[in-house]
Write a structure and sequence with these properties.
The protein is built from 13 helices and ten strands. It is of the alpha/beta class. Strand 4, helix 2 (69-79) and strand 5 (86-88) form a beta-alpha-beta unit.
Length: 355
């Protein structure tokens, strides 16, 4: 029954680099770990460009571009034919991680990926939560395991940013009961829960990531999903203060940011040079017959960032997917909007983009 302003933002005020999408993915997995070089693709370029042009998305960044031949397929399908509109990141060859000589092999794969056209490296939450010794059995592999040091170092030397997803919402590590604010979401997706087994805690995962950041100060990291702790912006701020090589994106976390608008606005003001725009969209959901999903998704993000509207849904669904709450717009200044929408990402990627 609340009567408040409703602002429709059809196009962003400035061009957008969507730093966090999943156009492609490795077609096979083993116990939650992507394996092999075969790829599957969410949508053809023309369908994605239709959404991008309507919503003022200048560049769509495909984080999960694969490695080896799979990476070359992804780049050949999106990045090469339409320069300036798609950017592809490579991913590790996880299935080789317990083999002798892996460190050197992985570093060489990233060097080859760079030659093939990859702009950066994506680390999925596979590392820390799914990757085990012998790929499926044995203990989980830690985020700060030294076998990956060569991987982080080569990204630093090649100036390839590392987009890293570590851990998940805090509620995913708690019992699925009436006290869990993600109760409905976890009942729909019980496989997303990390409670009651041999998983590290949320805090342990993030501290392992931080130890790795400390060891590799010359590598630029984008800690995805607001540093994977959007529920605790004070902690994310502490990490940003500790690690000058750390950035964050906002993908799939405006539901968290928008329910703490005053704290979030101060966060955006202080760290305006280190926040990038992202949606975590799976673009096949943007195409016919569900094209409206893609449009609505971007419009909600733009409304959150550009307006001071109050108490609106953070996702285009009948029941918000993460929890039964609404969000408030931040009404960012134009100078901060430019940085978040495209300037910060362009700097990290080493590309030029005009308004």
């Amino acid at each position: 029954m609340l009567h408040v302003a409703e602002t429709h933002i059809a196009r962003s005020r400035f061009p957008v680099i969507d730093f966090h999408t999943h156009i492609s993915k490795v077609a096979e997995n083993l116990n939650g770990v992507s394996v092999g070089e075969g790829m599957s693709f969410a949508a053809p370029p023309a369908e994605l460009l239709s959404v991008m042009d309507r919503k003022n998305v200048r560049i769509m960044l495909d984080l999960t571009g694969g490695w080896g031949e799979g990476l070359r397929q992804t780049i050949g399908k999106y990045q090469k034919p339409i320069p300036g509109r798609f950017v592809v990141f490579t991913t590790p060859a996880w299935e080789h991680s317990n083999r002798p000589g892996y460190s050197k092999f992985q570093a060489e794969q990233i060097e080859q990926g760079r030659r093939d056209g990859a702009y950066g490296l994506k680390i999925e939450k596979i590392l820390g939560l799914y990757l085990r010794e012998n790929i499926g059995t044995g203990p989980l592999v830690r985020v700060d395991d030294p076998r990956f040091d060569a991987m982080w170092d080569v990204c630093g030397s090649l100036r390839m940013p590392v987009a890293i997803h570590t851990s998940d919402p805090e509620a995913f590590f708690m019992p699925i009961d009436r006290f869990n604010e993600r109760f409905e979401e976890l009942n729909i997706h019980p496989e997303w829960s990390f409670y009651g087994r041999d998983f590290p805690s949320n805090a342990e995962l993030l501290e392992a990531r931080n130890r790795m950041f400390t060891r590799h100060p010359h590598t630029q990291f984008v800690a995805l999903h607001v540093g994977n702790d959007a529920e605790n912006l004070a902690y994310v701020a502490e990490c940003l203060d500790r690690f000058p090589n750390m950035h964050v994106d906002i993908a799939a976390r405006i539901g968290e940011l928008g329910r703490q608008p005053r704290t979030a606005l101060k966060f955006f003001d202080k760290y305006q040079d280190r926040i990038v725009f992202g949606t975590d969209a799976v673009p096949h959901r943007m195409t016919t017959p569900q094209q409206i999903f893609g449009d609505k998704l971007y419009e909600i993000y733009y409304r959150f960032l550009e307006t001071e509207d109050e108490y609106f849904d953070y996702a285009p669904a009948p029941v918000p997917p993460q929890g039964r709450w609404c969000i408030y717009g931040l009404g960012l200044s134009e100078s901060i909007l430019k940085k978040v929408y495209y300037e910060n990402a362009a700097r990290l990627l080493g590309i030029k983009i005009g308004p």
